[in-house]
Amino acid sequence: MKEVGCLKTWRGRAFEVVPLYSEAGVATQVLVKRKRDDILLDAGDGVLRDLVNIHYDFNRMKGILISHGHFDHIGGIYALIGFLRMIGRKEALPIAVPAPGSEVKGMVRTISTYSPGGLPFNVELICLNDGDEVEIASTKVRAFKVIHRGSTAQGITDPIPALGYVLQDGERIVYSGDTGYFEALEKEVRGADCAILEATHSVDSPEAPEVHLVESDAVKLGKMARDYILIHRTPKGWE
Question: Taking the CB of residue 183, how many other CB atoms lie within 10 A of it?
Fold first, then answer.
């Protein structure tokens, strides 16, 4: 592994995992790279800036996998699609979302009315449920349901549609998305070449197990994989 900023990256034979940025309640975006094309995991605020800062070739982006509709995971979609329009993208952009995907649908609908004639490329919204599979640029993607509620100053909110993802093409990458701890998550992570796991809380929290993972649980899960990366930490001073 190496580090980009304070986040570890991972490189295998088929995939490279590059967390661009990830802090709980701020933004998360992780780039999964292959030899010729890439898939973006979540698209929080600042994702466009983060990609531009690494001199990214946007022609490589073949799809986006959204774990859930909270603002810190979808807040950058509007700017990213607007930028792709500006640079003249023509290739369709698949965006997978947990069904029904209302939040992302609304954002895409809004940016599609940005100018007369709409976007010059098709945004293909793919609504997924537990166990659904899709192929993006020859990478096999399977969605699995995770347990997640929102957390605000007013308290814990109701459960929301939330997914983790398994990406497979010679190697297996597992992305937990935002999730509390549940036993079936062990099955998804076990034996993965790289597990990308949220570790929001450094110590036990009353929010667990239905909101976020505690770091000790994330490490326990990570050790079931061949390697792992911890993301979605709480910004310093918030806990």
Answer: 6
DSSP code at position 171: S
Q: What is the dihedral angle through the alpha carbons of 51, 226, 98, 74, rounded to the nearest 10 degrees?
A: -20
Place of tokens 């029904």: 100
Distance CA 124, CA 26 (A): 26
Spell out the domains of the chain, with CATH numbers in brackets: 2-231 (3.60.15.10)
3-state secondary structure 39-95: EEECCCCCHHHHHHHCCCCHHHEEEEECCECCHHHHCCHHHHHHHHHHCCCCCCEEE
Question: Do β-strands 38-41 and 61-65 pair in parallel, antiparallel, or remain unpaired?
Answer: parallel
Q: Are strands 228-231 and 194-198 parallel, antiparallel or unpaired?
A: parallel
Cβ(200)–Cβ(168) under 8 Å? no
> Is the CB of residue 140 less than 8 Å from the CB of residue 184?
no
N-term to C-term CA, the chain: 28
Per-residue pLDDT of 165-219, as tens digits, reads 999 999 999 999 999 999 999 999 999 999 999 999 877 766 566 888 999 999 9
Distance CA 20, CA 223 (A): 23
pTM over 0.90: yes
Nearest to 77 by CA among 89, 65, 87: 65
Q: Identity (one letter) of the amino acid at 216?
A: S
